[in-house]
Amino acid sequence: MFLLFAGFLLIFRLFQVSMQYNSLAQKRLTASRIAARTMEDVKAWARDPNNYDNNWDSTYPGTPYKDPYDSSYTVTVLQENHETLSPCTSLEQRWTASGKERKFTRSFRKVTVRVAWSADATDKISITSLVGDPPREILAEHALEIKFPNGMKDKLGPDETQVLSASLKDADGNVIPDVCFEWYVIPAQMGPGQGGNGIIDHDLPDTSRTGRRVVFRNTYPHPGGWRPIRGRVRMRVLSYYRRARQIRISETDWRNQE
What pLDDT digit, counting tens, does each position of 63-75 carry? Predict the structure, then answer.
């Protein structure tokens, strides 16, 4: 009788443990489904550019709330800005000391969804994902802009510089922040003679490797050394956004002087 009673207690205890683990597994499975559903809701909400740009902190302030479909679970959505380097961290790290790394600051938000079913710190799960900036509609004829932040100089003396900036705007006129640009110098021939030329000085603090801000310098390499090239000059800029290329040439040109 003693052995039978001991065996019965052991089986009963194993049955209890099995039920507890089964209950825990069911709770974790339900919590995982709630977390996945919440993450998809966040991604769907972020597809609206206005939400992505302006409403993160007001919509997802990090305050716990009851799941609308199962009030026994508490959901918390945490989000923060996530910076990335382009094209990748390993290639850009050598530029970080000079502050010229190509850094994207608005392309991603790091979102963490936590789901808990009790006050115990172990009774919760969390998932994390990067939510990307939604695609923006581009109107090609007005999208790409060239500006002269310090004003345009009509004449540049030898070794003088001119600062230019570029921006890409969506159909609503909002600047798309994380875009890289490529610049080219165009000798602008005005009447007889040949247009001038120059370089983009990448060593100056005003020059960004993203191409959002560059410095043109009135000098050019020659066999005998560097010297200015007389003539009129324009700049051309290219941007690539979601595999679509935009091209713009500065509407005004300036005169290089020797």
Answer: 999 999 999 999 9
Q: Which domains does the chain have, with CATH numbers?
A: 31-132 (no CATH), 140-256 (2.60.40)
Q: What's the rounded Cα separation, in Å, for the pair 177 and 58?
A: 21
Q: Percent of the chain beyond pLDDT 70?
A: 88
Residue with tokens 């001038």: 196
**CA-to-CA separations, 28 to 33, 70, 103, 255, in angstroms, rounded:** 9, 13, 38, 71
Q: What is the DSSP letter of 93?
A: G
Q: What is the CA radius of gyration of the chain?
A: 30
DSSP one-letter string for 104-117: EEEEEEEEEEEEES
Place of tokens 């209950």: 23
User: pLDDT tens digits for 5-47?
Assistant: 666 667 666 656 566 666 667 889 999 999 999 999 999 999 9
What sign results for the dihedral spanned by CA atoms 216, 221, 225, 228?
Answer: negative
Backbone angles phi, psi at 243, to 5 degrees: 70, 5
- Mean pLDDT of the residues in the chain: 87
